Each structure stands twice: as structure tokens, then as C-alpha cells.
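A.,

Following up on our hallway conversation. C-alpha cells first:
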């Protein structure tokens, strides 16, 4: 059975709505997802970089994020034909481990816990495919990288790209 590794943030987890909501609340801003096209929040407000990253160091931040539309249904279907691993570069924010694990158990409990991979460098992942929003993870990955569209990567070219989970289904099934 072929293996598909799937990133969490901005792939199965709808990360931006909460990040923007708490930032806008705390700094009386009105930044939208459209404002993030081709960039990150830290690049828009570089003078607040530490504060913006600080949200991600909150051990509870990742616990109540929304599920990306259609991801549960499609991953469940894919798991009938492929070995599925959810992979997250959680070493960037080690305080997120518990919240991310609990989130995965709640929303993707149909997958085996042993298929949740918390790592740093995703080149260690032995899979045929990696679905990720960040092209840096494809640089040393031995399989096929599939770029999941997110506002920050909208200008990236040269990769197989999917815009949503229905396109993921069409690609694999």
C-alpha cells in the first residue's frame, strides 16, 4: 500500500481564521485572509513578529482550530486505499504537542495514533506523497510533494498543486 503523509496546519487544520482573530482583537487591526496572499502575518507586521509567533507558543492555541473543509471525509476515503500519516513539524513549537495530539484524536480519531508523526525535518518521512502548504518540506523529501494552496504560497510555482480536499480526492482516487 502506498503512503501519503499529510501536514496539519493549513492543510487539515484551518489555521488562519483563529490566528487573525486573536491578532486583530489584540492589536485592533482588521487583517483578512486576502491580506495574507503571498505573505505571512509576520511579514505584514514585522515590528510585532515576536508577539505574532508568541500566539503559537501558547500550549492551548492549536487545540480549538477548525477542521479544513472536506478533509475528514476525503482522508477517511483515502485510508481505504493508502496508508495515511498526519505529519507536523511540531518541533518548531514544542508546546503545541499536547494540543495537536488531542485535536487529531478528536477530529481524525479514525486514524491510528501510530500514524501521527511529530517531527522537525520532514525529509525523514518515508512516504510516496507529502501534501503540505510549505514548499521547504519538499526540498529533501524523497517522494512526490503536493502543494496544498494556502494564502502564503499562492505565488509558488513548479509544484503539483491542489486547492482543496475535493481536488486531493480527484488526484488520488
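Then the amino acids I'd put at each of the 173 positions:
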Amino acid at each position: 500500500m502506498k503512503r501519503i503523509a499529510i501536514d496539519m496546519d493549513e492543510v487539515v487544520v484551518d489555521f488562519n481564521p483563529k490566528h487573525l482573530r486573536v491578532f486583530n482583537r489584540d492589536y485592533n487591526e482588521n487583517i483578512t485572509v486576502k491580506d495574507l496572499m503571498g505573505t505571512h502575518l509576520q511579514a505584514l507586521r514585522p515590528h510585532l513578529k515576536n508577539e505574532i509567533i508568541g500566539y503559537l507558543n501558547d500550549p492551548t492555541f492549536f487545540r480549538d482550530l477548525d477542521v479544513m473543509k472536506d478533509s475528514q471525509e476525503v482522508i477517511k476515503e483515502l485510508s481505504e486505499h493508502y496508508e495515511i500519516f498526519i505529519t507536523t513539524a511540531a518541533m518548531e513549537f514544542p508546546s503545541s504537542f499536547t494540543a495537536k495530539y488531542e485535536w487529531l484524536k478528536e477530529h481524525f480519531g479514525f486514524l491510528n495514533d501510530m500514524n501521527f508523526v511529530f517531527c522537525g525535518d520532514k525529509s525523514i518521512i518515508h512516504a510516496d506523497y507529502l501534501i503540505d502548504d510549505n514548499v521547504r518540506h519538499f526540498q529533501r523529501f524523497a517522494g512526490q510533494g503536493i502543494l496544498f494552496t494556502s494564502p502564503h504560497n499562492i505565488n509558488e510555482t513548479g509544484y503539483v498543486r491542489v486547492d482543496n480536499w475535493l481536488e486531493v480526492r480527484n488526484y488520488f482516487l
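Residues 16-62 form one domain. Curious whether your intuition agrees with the design.

B.
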